[in-house]
User: Fold this.
Amino acid sequence: MNLLLAASKEKKDGNSKYYSGDLGEKVFADLNYTLKRLCRGLSSENHAAKEGFFLTLVLVLLRFKALVDFEKLLKLILAQTAINAQMKPSEANPLSFGRFMAIAALVHSKSLTKDKVVH
Assistant:
C-alpha cells in the first residue's frame, strides 16, 4: 500500500517521466510504453513476431481509442521508422514494412476517421 501511495504522490508531483504520456494527456505510463514498444516491434526482422505485434497493436488501439492522441502516435511511427540515404536495403526494408504495418494497424483499429484528421 505504501508503494501505491508513493507512486500516486510521485504522479502528482510530476517527478517521474513515466507518468506523463507523450502520446496524449490521458495516456498513462503503461499504455504509453506499450504503444511505443508495439510500434518498435513492427520493424522486427522476425516475421512471426511482426504478426503478433500487429494484432496486439490493433487490439490495444481498439480498447484505448479514446485515450490516445493519434496525431502524436503517427508522428512517433514516422520517427521510429525513418529511413536515411546511408542505410543499406537490409536495414531499410524492415523499417519500411514496419511503417506500413503500423499505419495499417491504425486503419484496422478504425482510429483514423473523418473526425480525426491528421495534419
Notes: Confidence is low (pLDDT under 50) at residues 1-10. Residues 14 and 20 are 8 Å apart (CA to CA).
